[in-house]
Backbone:
């Protein structure tokens, strides 16, 4: 029986839980939080292959979005279109189960299903100055008109690769980075947000 | 900085892309039959055009896909973006002295 390892936060050394407050003060422009571990699977295949599209839809409960940057959500699972024929399926806290579910639905189909959840760390940034904070280090346009709710984009944030996802109409973004960049990303965001007043929130 | 219209992601800053140099350079069908000079030409020698050039770019920090771009090296204007493997579109090519 293999030992089941606990998911270890990439930012555990910062002691964020002890520094977290319940809510952001009215005077603070930005709230930062480390999102808890989230299962993620990199899914690749051809959407024009009916077997792939149907299999993925059966496993996810929604059709894969074709347009790069679009996100489809069903229940706790979301599929983020990273590129043509490439998606990041995220949701829940059981990566192996998510992978198994997709593999079962795509049996015999030309596809790639790779569990990548533990490779990433996600930081949530919210508040009226969240977009301005990100704008300091990222060439994407975070204005609500250019980056509406339900969109994601990959870009650079202060030289590191990021996946930014705007989940709702709120001025809030989820910034997903490679795990080894989590410390840098957190410190950069915290520093960039300091002039607006920043609250550390519980994930 | 250039604003490059990625065929998958839309207009993005040049920072997100990597340059792949001149496009449409075909590997010789029979490399063993080439002289050293011809092989060196294939490997190293590139046009240094003043005007429209065809080049490859990859959206390395975005969708990570390759594509071709037609760009004017004098004005930096991007005249066309077209997929890998496709023939370049017909373009009006300005000539410069």
Residues:
């Amino acid at each position: 029986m293999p030992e089941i390892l606990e998911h270890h936060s990439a930012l555990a050394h910062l002691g964020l839980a002890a520094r977290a407050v319940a809510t952001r003060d009215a005077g603070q422009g930005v709230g930062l939080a480390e999102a808890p571990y989230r299962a993620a699977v990199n899914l690749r295949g051809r959407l024009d292959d009916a077997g792939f599209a149907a299999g993925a839809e059966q496993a996810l409960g929604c059709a894969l979005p074709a347009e790069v940057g679009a996100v489809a959500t069903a229940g706790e699972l979301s599929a983020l279109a990273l590129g043509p024929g490439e998606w990041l399926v995220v949701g829940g806290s059981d990566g192996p189960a998510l992978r198994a579910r997709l593999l079962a639905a795509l049996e015999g189909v030309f596809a790639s299903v790779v569990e990548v959840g533990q490779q990433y760390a996600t930081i949530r940034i919210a508040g009226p100055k969240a977009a301005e904070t990100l704008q300091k280090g990222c060439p994407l346009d975070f204005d609500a008109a250019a980056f509406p709710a339900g969109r994601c984009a990959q870009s650079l944030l202060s030289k590191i690769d990021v996946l930014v996802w705007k989940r709702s109409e709120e001025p809030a973004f989820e910034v997903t980075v490679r795990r080894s960049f989590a410390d840098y990303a957190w410190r950069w965001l915290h520093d960039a947000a300091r002039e607006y007043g920043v609250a550390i929130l519980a994930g | 900085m250039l604003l490059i219209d990625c065929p998958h992601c839309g207009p993005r800053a040049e920072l997100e892309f990597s340059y792949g140099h001149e496009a449409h350079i075909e590997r010789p069908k029979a490399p063993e039959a080439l002289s050293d000079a011809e092989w060196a030409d294939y490997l190293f020698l590139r046009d240094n055009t003043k005007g429209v050039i065809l080049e490859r770019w990859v959206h390395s920090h975005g969708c990570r896909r390759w594509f071709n771009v037609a760009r004017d090296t004098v004005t930096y204007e991007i005249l066309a973006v077209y997929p890998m493997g496709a023939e370049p579109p017909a373009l009006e090519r300005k000539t410069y002295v």
